[in-house]
Amino acid sequence: ETTSGAIVIRSTNGGTAGLSGSLFFSTGTSKASNSGSVYIGTGAATAGRAGAVVVSVGSGTSGAGGGVLVNAGRSTLNTGGAVRISSGQGTATTSGAVVIR
Question: What does pTM read for this prediction?
């Protein structure tokens, strides 16, 4: 095999008069220990370019475009969670850029 398969998870279209559905990815809650984590990533490539993780929001025709919210968790008894954005390390060259526009 030269290519692995794709997995597509999507809600159905809303049609001409309705809304499309929402997707929720979540772990369960925990009262006695830590809750689980949600990981989204691509595999490594030894002879080519590694895949990308793309978060894309749809555009609006008559309303505003959708937003992107990155929100770290809060804590009542400890430090809140951190939001980290970092570029990839270049072993033979420089690391990638972080662009916020």
Answer: 0.62
